[in-house]
Structures are given as C-alpha cells and as structure tokens.
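Researcher: Sequence of N-acetyltransferase domain-containing protein follows. Predict its structure.
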Amino acid sequence: MVTTAERPDLAPLTGRWRWEAFRQEEDDSLAEMMAAQAAGAAGPGPMPRTFVLLDDDEPVGMASLVAHDLDPRPDLTPWLAGVFVAPQARGRGHAVRLVAAVEADAAALGIATLWLYTRSAEALYAQIGWRNVETFAYRGRMYALMRRDLSA
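Model: Prediction complete. Tokens:
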C-alpha cells in the first residue's frame, strides 16, 4: 500500500479511476479530475490522501481520506471516499484492506469519526463496522449515509 504523495506517478491513474467510477455521468471532466488528483497527491496536509493498493507492484485499487465529499452535508467531515477496485482484482478482499488503511490513517491523525455515502456497497461497509445513519436522495438516486466511529 502506498499513497499518491509517495508515488505521484499514480495520481493520473487514480484520477481516471475516480472519474470513470464516480463522476463520468456528472459535469466534471476527466481533465479536471486528474488535475485534482495530482494536486491532492502533492498537497502538504493530511487531506486529501489517496491510498493505492499494489499487487505485484501493479495498482489494483484505491481509497481516499478527504475533508469533504458530499455537497449537501458540509457539516460532516472527514470522509472515506473513492473506494475503487479494478474489475480484474475484485473478490479478493482488496476493498476491505483499502478501507482499513484509510481508517488507520484517520485514527493516527486523531480523527474520531469517518463518513461515507454509497449507492451499492452498504452491506460490505456494514460487515466491517460501519453503520447506516440515513438513506437520502441525491442527484436523482438513493444513497446510504454511513459513519464509522474509530475510537470504539
């Protein structure tokens, strides 16, 4: 596991993954997403921080710790965001490892609670200790808002 701060050469790939998985249908362009990933990789602070899981030195997935991830909820911070595993690497527990890396990093920073929202992986997150706080509509789709208390 590495971060894009340690391996800035991975930022273009994580930007493309993030755009294809989460933003392609929205107004964000691929170029904007890749620029944001590159800027985040070079940033001096603890957030955003993107973790990349390597399998035989090949990137197979990512997850990020970000200050904000859901425009209608600026009161909630920080967030687990952009959890993605490449299709050919799915089904091997990589998502759980990525989430654990973000949780450990957040805990080391003294963060007590993390947030996420998901449309399709609520059961996975519930199995690893996240709890559903509410279900809400956003941009015409239903999502689960979930939290993880790290001090427990």
